[in-house]
Specification:
The chain is 29% helix and 11% strand. The protein is an alpha+beta fold. Helix 1 packs antiparallel against helix 2.
Amino acid sequence: MSATMKLFRTAETSQIRSAGRSRRPGGGVGSSASPRPGGLLTLFRMAVFLWIVSAASASLADDCMLSCHKALFGKKHMHQPVREENCTACHVRRSAAHPLIGGKSWELTAKGAAFCEQCHSPLVLKKVVHSPVKSGECTGCHRPHGAEGRNLLDDNKNLTATCTGCHDSAPFKQQFMHGPVAVGQCAECHHPHSSAENALLTQPSRELCLRCHVDFSRLIQESPIVHAPVRNDACTSCHNPHGAPNNMFLKKKMPDLCVGCHQKIGKHLADLKTPHKPVQEGKGCGNCHSAHFGKVKGLFPADAKGLCLDCHGTDKLGSPPLRNIKKEIEGKKFLHGPLREGECRGCHDPHGSQNFRLLRGSYPADLYAPYRDGIYGACLNCHEKNLLRFADTTVYTKFRNGNRNLHYVHVAIKRKGRTCRVCHEAHASNGEKLISKEGSQFGDWKIPLNFQITPTGGSCAPGCHRAFTYDRNTPQSYGTEEQEH
């Protein structure tokens, strides 16, 4: 016999005994002090009934706790009806037999959201509703009896297990993880029930990111140059908000991510003979450009010249080491025009080039290269294009003996045409016309040039030939040497 039936029978017996003691011999009921003995009996029955219900509920909870359903009790945070041992607040009995083989003797008092709304206020739902909420499956996330975490969650401090019960777990296993995702704090960005924003975000995407990244918020306002996606789009244009195999959880590695928008540069990078290594290594484009904002056009963290010299200002860059340009130009009296204006890219392509030394135009890698059309484009893009085409001229150069073009003599001779760098420094010099005062590098030796300028010409006495003078107004005679050239 169930505990409930025992309680009902005990109460019934008690009622009969009480009624018998109150009757007088002869069948009279009550005394003159009790004009309505039936009212007392009714009150007594009600009290007994309430006691029975209370006792039955407690007994029922004891039966549940101590028999089959012990595992549902004893959690750190218990659902209130369970804590109060009131199983019948949620469950109703449909069969006297329990457990019922092949069926259920107990049912929930309601179904779906209506079940929880018997106690909890209905949720005010916004435009985007979480799927379990929409279908009324509150127990998709919340434990109905009790849980170790608050709000009847398995772990309210780390929701990874709860959320990945339905959602793909791959974003939670990336090499680089967004902080909230790494510690399972999904609710820092997503509302668990409904939201006015897509993906159940608690705020519009941009505002949501800047809620934590407050330094970015301030710097975006202060910076004169802001990257277009940062100014106009969501941060998720470039970043995966959960995690990615790329640093800073970028959707793609650099430069692939950048050329998705900067397609012209992407085409340029696809077929380079001489790529700029920072574009391909480490942070890629981020080695030179700020991805978000800057004070200099091009999103550079400093002026272009200073940025280049951050790397090209050491004796240890590359293997074998590249030249230390910072040291070479430091204190020099004359700077090449583009460098004087702080624009290394006047001559060099910072992304990469088809040419030697990242030059924007063609230029021979060898020291000796007789002139022919097309091979000195790097210099002739700015300097006089006809400089090396004519043996005699009065207009294309001042470096001439009478009408004789001495640039042509040096560069265009077929046997050993000298490249521009034999006499001129590409970046800076203490000599006019960027003629090297220290001499031109020739293997381990620096060839002295001993170049002097006069109002109508000049002279040089380099290590490669005897001393010569030249004059535009009064041509000098070089004897048989003149015929050799």
